[in-house]
Write a structure and sequence with these properties.
single chain, 7-stranded mixed beta sheet, 408 residues, 6-stranded mixed beta sheet, alpha/beta
């Protein structure tokens, strides 16, 4: 039995991996700075978990220590692992090793839509009678975040932020889009694009939406399916949800599903947590949460809400995610936020203890109009004050902005 220790085990990408390891009869331990719901679930499944990082958490006879990219080299548990000559792997490196045990690895990567496309593809495959292994980095209503499956297909999100998506050896890579997000953490545009080229080279088959950047990077692939247009409507779905469901249905066909059955199954678009989730609905207002944290995603969310609630007053509560991203896309964020009827901007979610040249107050000033900045907790009453009849409150961001929801 393998003995694995996960440093940062409560993270969205780490917890499902730890759960998969448990399901494969590995002995799992781990730690995080706190004990969240994912930690509790893993503990109930048999993992030994600490709510703090200390050297003694690392079993002396561990075969491997897996760590989140947010865990630094000098973390005390990583230091202890090196002292004990325990092999260290980043989350994405371990994912690549785990996926290599399947006949057909399917990785969903790119800048936007990874969780939604992954969950949609898994849902379609299961409805079409297949039993895929999978790992989803978000909660999905009516579906687990992971499964070992029957050993044939393994579907996973592949994160580009640390470059580990290029380590997976894919039967099929699904790449809906590529933008320059995360350039700052990788060393620039050239590195980002080289990584995606490597993903294509590592993939027997490739599926992507046409764009100038994707066409340039993937035009030489010997077995690529290029989808020439992004649909605005697919079945009952609209906007980016239609685009995500359509490319997932096409991936399912490549994996052996009947085209008509795949299209029908895609109608059951999975309800992914923090992706256009309706949190509360009253005669006066509707509260919707979405994970949008890039200007393209915020724009897509605003457009979908406008088409879904054409006569509503749209009040956006937005939390910038990382100072580096806010600085890079400052003008784009300001421009897209102007499309809302009223805006509240929360303090930046710093993620990895970053600081920056611009902040939420500066973004509110740039957005102009009714845009305000401040603490979400202080807005518990303010957000709803003077709210017109028939309003939509859209809570957008990838950080801890969701803590505002119970107060609303």
């Amino acid at each position: 039995m393998k003995k694995l220790h996960f440093t940062g085990i409560g993270g969205a990408g780490m917890a499902p991996l730890a759960a998969l390891a448990l399901a494969e009869n590995c002995e799992v331990s781990g730690s995080d700075s706190g004990f969240n719901a994912k930690c509790r679930q893993l503990a109930s499944a048999g993992a030994r978990i600490s709510d703090r990082h200390i050297p003694d958490n690392v079993p002396p006879d561990a075969d491997m220590l897996i760590y989140s990219s947010a865990v630094k080299y000098d973390n005390c548990e990583r230091v202890r692992a090196r002292e004990l000559h325990i092999r260290e792997l980043r989350r994405g490196e371990f994912l690549a090793e785990f996926a290599s045990g399947y006949q057909r690895c399917v990785s969903v990567t790119g800048t936007h839509g990874k969780s939604s496309i992954t969950s949609s593809l898994v849902s379609i495959l299961r409805q079409c009678g297949k039993d895929p292994g999978f790992m989803i980095g978000a909660e999905v209503k009516g579906m687990p975040a992971y499964s070992c499956g029957d050993g044939d297909i393994f579907v996973t999100e592949a994160d580009e932020s640390d470059g580990t998506h290029k380590l997976l050896k894919n039967f099929l890579a699904v790449i809906p889009n590529i933008e320059d997000d995360h350039e700052w953490s990788l060393g620039g545009k050239a590195v980002l694009e080289a990584n995606f080229r490597q993903v294509a080279e590592n993939s027997r088959k490739l599926l992507y939406y046409a764009s100038d950047r994707c066409d340039e990077l993937f035009s030489g692939h010997p077995d690529a399916v290029r989808l020439p247009e992004i649909p605005e409507k697919f079945g009952k779905l609209h906007g980016f949800q239609a685009a995500n469901a359509f490319i997932a249905s096409q991936a399912a066909v490549i994996l052996g599903c009947d085209p008509a059955a795949s299209a029908r199954a895609a109608e059951n678009y999975p309800q992914v947590a923090r992706r256009m989730s309706v949190i509360k609905k009253t005669p006066q207002f509707t509260v919707i949460e979405d994970y949008a944290h890039h200007p393209t995603e915020v724009k897509a969310a605003v457009n979908l809400l406008r088409s879904s609630y054409p006569s509503a007053h749209l009040r956006v509560v937005f939390q910038p995610h990382r100072f580096a991203r806010l600085e890079k896309y400052f003008a784009e964020f300001a421009e897209v936020l102007k499309e809302a009827d009223s805006v509240y901007i929360a303090p930046v979610f710093a993620a990895w203890s970053e600081t920056g040249k611009v902040d939420s107050a500066a973004l509110a000033d740039a957005a102009g109009g009714t845009a305000l900045s401040g603490s979400p907790v202080q807005w518990a009453v303010t957000v709803k004050r003077d709210l017109p009849e028939n309003s939509v409150i859209a809570v957008l961001g990838a950080g801890d902005i969701d803590r505002l929801l119970p107060l609303l």
